[in-house]
Amino acid sequence: MLRDKYQSLIAMAEGNGVADLNIQEQDNVLHIDGTAPSEAVKQQLWDEYNRLDPDMRSGDVVMNLEVAAGSEVFYTVVAGDSLSKIATKYPGVTWQKIFEANRDQIKNPDLIHPGQKLRIPTA
Amino acid sequence: MQDRKSLRSITAALAFCLAALLGACQKGPDDAALTTSVKSQLSAQSQALASMVNVETKQGVVTLTGTVDNDAAKSQAEQAAKGVANVKSVVNNLSVKPPIVVSEDPKIKSAVEAGMTKYDVKGVTANVADGQVTLTGEIPRAKLQDAMKAANEAGAKKVVNQLTIK
């Protein structure tokens, strides 16, 4: 059973507040569906999947996790930051998306200030 | 004399009752042992399966309840229970989850492409056939997860990764 192979991934999903979680083996593929409470939890699950299958070639998992709406993440700018540098900290987020989400406080994307609290959109 | 006789018959009656009671009780431990054997047989095959199946035994008849992923798991549990010695019969009351709905190919295809844009993945081709996504092309290892996320979040039934990881 694939549930046995991916037992640690399933336990992680169950233990980290993934809502509407449905785990089901169908046609030799383990489907994992649900809504993660944050981007960080989703990433944690992907890292676990990646740990169990380093090259992700088994073809026996389909993991479709959404991230709960309103689970906004904020980042406080420190000296030496740029939007693109900040974006690399959040998989799936581009500097353009951060710029878009913070139009109210960023006029010029090349100009951000230490101490600014930037809204990080969900990927 | 009379008293002693009646005492003896009372004692005999009590002994008889006790024996009958013990006989009835004997059923209990047997059933409990069978339940344990069925559970360990399930665990031996799959810990996950064992955790999803409830086992109850009455007079050698094993009843399975709970919800499993698919028909194969349902019959696997039944076969496992039937394989345990002294099990008279198995009542399989397991329910099976409704099947996962797979999107249609064109819908999967456009969802994967939207995902590739969202995760900023370039140089990956996604072929979709019979609900299956096959990824080809070259990808830096740092972007492998992103490419897989795009393919996994498209309602496919299977994702095959044939990417060359650089």
Can you give a write-up of this model?
The complex is a heterodimer of chains A (123) and B (166). In chain A, a hairpin with a 2-residue loop joins β1 and β2 (29-36). Helices cover 32% and strands 25% of the residues of chain A. Chain A has 2 domains: 2-67, Histidine-containing Protein, Chain: A (2-Layer Sandwich), CATH 3.30.1340; 73-120, Membrane-bound Lytic Murein Transglycosylase D, Chain A (Roll). The mean pLDDT of chain A is 92. With 123 residues, chain A is α+β, with helices and mostly antiparallel strands. In chain A, the strands form 2 sheets. Chain A has a 3-stranded mixed beta sheet with strand order 1-2-3. A two-stranded antiparallel ribbon of chain A has the order 4-5. In chain A, α2 runs antiparallel to α3 (39-52). In chain A, 28% of the residues are buried. With 166 residues, chain B is α/β, with parallel strands linked by helices. Chain B folds into 2 domains: 2-96, Histidine-containing Protein, Chain: A, CATH 3.30.1340.30; 105-165, Histidine-containing Protein, Chain: A (2-Layer Sandwich). Chain B is 53% helix and 24% strand. Chain B is built from 5 helices and 8 strands. In chain B, strands 1, 2, 3 and 4 form a 4-stranded mixed beta sheet that branches. In chain B, β1 and β2 form a beta hairpin. In chain B, α1 (2-45) packs across α3 (71-82) and α4 packs antiparallel against α5 (141-152). The radius of gyration of chain B is 30 Å and the shape is rod-shaped. The termini of chain B are far apart. The chains are: A alpha+beta (123), B alpha/beta (166). Chain A binds chain B through residues 1, 3-4, 7, 10, 22-27, 29, 31, 33, 46, 50, 55-57, 59, 61-65, 91-92, 94, 123, and chain B through 46-49, 69-70, 73, 97, 99-100, 118-120, 144-146, 148-149, 152-161, 165.
